[in-house]
C-alpha cells in the first residue's frame, strides 16, 4: 500500500478561469451541515438533501437549495459530498440514486470508516460507475471552512484534482495521502488513536491526583509540561521505528519499568481502574524479559506489532513459575 502525505499544491487562481462548480451535500447531520454551510459561504451553488427534512431548514438562510430527493440534489452537481453516518448508509443511499443523475458528479465520501471499509466502498462504487473519492474530515464542525480545517483524501488522483474548487471551500488543508482508497481512513484512525490515548492518559492521571484532593485544574500545567515534550519525543520515536534501532542513550526500558511500577502501585492504592497502568507496565516488563532492558522506549513497537510473541512469553513465564508480571495484566 502506498500512503503519501504530500500537501496539495496550490494552483494559480489566474489559471482557473472556469465556472465555479455546483456542489451537492447528502446528509445534514452536524458535519454535513457544516460542510454545506462552508460551501455556501464560499459562494458555491449548493444543493443539499437530508432524510429528515427539518435539519435542512437553517441552511436556506445561507442560500443552500434544499432538494426533495437525493436524485434532485446530485443531478446538477459537479461534486457531491456524502456526509452520512457510515459506509452502509452511504452505499444504500448511493444505490438508491438513478445512475444517470450521479453520472456528472465526483462523489466525496466523508463518512468515517476503517481502511478496509473504505477500500470496499470505493470498489463497490467503481463497479457501479460511481466516481468516488475517499475522505476523512479530521477537525470538529466549527473548524470546517476555516484555515484550520484538515481533510485527508485518497483514491483516484484524477478525482482529487477534479474536485479541487469544491474541496477548497472546506478551508485549511486538503491533503492527498495516496491512491489506496483506504489511506485516508488509515491515517484517520491512527490520528484518533494518538488523540484518545493522550486524552485518556490525562484523565487517568487526573483521577489519580484527584484521589488525593488535587484538582484537575491544579494538575493541568504540569500535565501540559509533559505534553510539550512530546513533539520532540515523537520525532525521535519515528526515527527509531523507521530505522529499526532503539538506542537507550536517553532512556532505558529497565529504568522506565520501575517508574511504571510506581504509576501502577499509586493507581492501585487509589482504587483506580488499572487497565491503562497495567498495559504500560506490562509492555515495559515484556521488553525487559525479552532482553531489551537497555533499549529505549521505542523498542516497545516490536511488542505492539506482535502481541502473540508477548503472550507466548507470558505463558512461558507462568509455566516456568518465574512470573514477574501478574497474570491478570497480561491479556
Ligand atoms: N461531527 C463531527 O465532529 C465529525 C468529525 C469528523 C468526521 N465526522 C464523520 O462525519 C459523518 C457524519 O457525522 P455527523 O456528525 O454529521 O453525524 P452522524 O450522526 O454520524 O450522521 C448523521 C447523518 O446521517 C444520516 N443518516 C443516518 N442514517 C441514515 C439512513 N439510514 N438513511 C439516510 N440518512 C441517514 C442522518 O440523517 P437524519 O438527519 O435523517 O438522521 C444525518 O444526515 C460520520 O461518518 C462522522 O464519523 C464527524
Oligomeric state of this protein: single chain
Structural class: alpha/beta
Question: How many angstroms separate the termini?
Answer: 30 Å
Output the helix-strand order: EEHEHEHEHHEHEEHHEHHHHHH
Strand order of the largest sheet: 1-9-8-7-6-5-2-3-4
Q: How many H/I helices?
A: 14
Summarize the structure.
It is built from 14 helices and nine strands. It is α/β, with parallel strands linked by helices.
Characteristic key phrases:
single chain, 331 residues, alpha/beta, Rossmann fold, N-(1-d-carboxylethyl)-l-norvaline Dehydrogenase, domain 2, 2 domains, nine-stranded mixed sheet, 11% strand, elongated, disordered C terminus, binds NADP nicotinamide-adenine-dinucleotide phosphate
Describe the protein in words.
Residues 180-305 form the NADPH-dependent reductive aminase-like C-terminal domain. This is 6-phosphogluconate dehydrogenase. Residues 22-138 form the 6-phosphogluconate dehydrogenase NADP-binding domain. This protein has 331 residues and is α/β, with parallel strands linked by helices. The chain folds into two domains: 6-185, NAD(P)-binding Rossmann-like Domain (Rossmann fold, 3-Layer(aba) Sandwich), CATH 3.40.50.720; 211-329, N-(1-d-carboxylethyl)-l-norvaline Dehydrogenase, domain 2 (Orthogonal Bundle). 51% of the residues lie in helices and 11% in strands. The chain has helices at residues 30-41, 57-60, 70-74, 87-96, 99-102, 115-127, 157-162, 164-168, 183-210, 216-243, 253-269, 275-292, 300-305, 307-320, and strands at residues 6-7, 22-26, 45-49, 65-66, 79-82, 106-109, 131-137, 150-154, 173-176. It has a nine-stranded mixed beta sheet, sandwiched between helices. Helix 1 (30-41) links the parallel strand 2 and strand 3. The chain is elongated and about 65 Å long. Mean pLDDT is 91; it is low at 9-16 and 318-331. The chain binds NADP nicotinamide-adenine-dinucleotide phosphate (NAP). NADP nicotinamide-adenine-dinucleotide phosphate binds next to helix 1 and helix 4.
